[in-house]
Specification:
The chain has 241 residues and is of the alpha+beta class. The chain is 49% helix and 11% strand. It has a four-stranded antiparallel β-sheet, sandwiched between helices. Helix 2 crosses helix 8 and helix 5 packs antiparallel against helix 6. It binds flavin mononucleotide. Flavin mononucleotide (FMN) binds next to strand 3.
């Protein structure tokens, strides 16, 4: 498959669009397809600790745009996608992987397959069990610090580490969504400028849920891209060793 030229065009065409043409016709099927593609994004341990809330109703859009601090990207968007991190879902999502893999592996899993099953049944609980004060995470961190003195060891085990891990995966899902929209000739803008607590209330989300990003979707107005693309020089960002 050689689509590098097309991919290059998509990447270059995607911009954060702040003003959408509210009169342009908008095929919401494109959002559907892009959400399907977004669900194929990689996630840490394939745990898929996210949910996407697709806001289409005019009343909810109006409210959510206000909670996005009335940014033009939100107030003129045709739809708003809320990318939510649900680290509380780790147990059911680990079970999903365990059950599906067990079915695939059959009655007699190979040693490598048994290792994969143990990963979901034992290592995941060890890493993801947490209390609200982060004490479990601190204990794990301590263990990793001690063992890490003698050999390379995985260190992303505190409550904060786990939150970061879940947000990383969620951001990849959001980026896949935005690139797919761009491939279809539609525009987006990722936003972290919002009132998280009001957004959570609007979506009826529990306290532990975290909003990673809200992505506006629409068709760009001519003046919807605010300026040229500014990027640092490659040598300031990319290092070859
Ligand atoms: C995590 C994240 C949060 C962002 N939040 C906002 C935002 O709240 N409002 C906004 O207008 N743009 C937001 N942006 C868009 C950036 O400003 C934009 O990506 C950057 O200026 C580069 O421009 P480009 O996306 O057109 O290449 C956000 C981007 C990211 C990745």
């Amino acid at each position: 498959m050689k689509v590098a030229k097309t991919f290059d065009e998509i990447v270059k065409w995607r911009r954060s669009v702040r003003l959408y043409d509210t009169d342009a016709s908008f095929d919401s099927n494109v959002v559907d397809i892009s959400l399907d593609r977004a669900l194929l994004a990689p996630t840490s341990s394939n745990l898929q600790l996210f949910e996407i809330y697709r806001i289409k109703s005019p009343q909810k859009l109006e409210k959510l745009a206000r909670y996005c601090l009335s940014q033009p990207a939100a107030t003129t968007a045709k739809e708003l996608m809320v990318f939510v991190v649900r680290r509380d879902k780790w147990s059911e999502r680990a079970k999903f992987n365990y059950d599906e893999l067990s079915k695939l592996f059959g009655e007699k899993p190979t040693p490598a397959q048994r290792k994969t099953l143990l990963y979901y049944s034992q290592l995941m609980p060890f890493i993801y069990i947490n209390d609200s004060l982060g004490i479990c995470g601190m204990l794990r961190k301590l263990i990793s610090l001690v063992f890490g003195m003698f050999r390379p060891i995985y260190r992303g085990v505190s409550l904060t580490d786990i939150r970061i891990i879940a947000h990383k995966s969620c951001a990849l899902v959001a980026q896949t969504f935005m690139l797919s929209m761009a491939a279809e000739g539609y525009d987006t803008c990722p936003m972290e400028g919002f009132d998280e607590s009001r957004v959570k209330k609007l979506l009826n989300l529990p306290g532990i849920a975290e909003i990673s990003l809200i992505v506006a979707a629409g068709i760009r107005k001519q003046d919807g891209v605010y300026g040229p693309r500014l990027r640092l020089a490659k040598q300031q960002l990319v290092f070859e060793l």
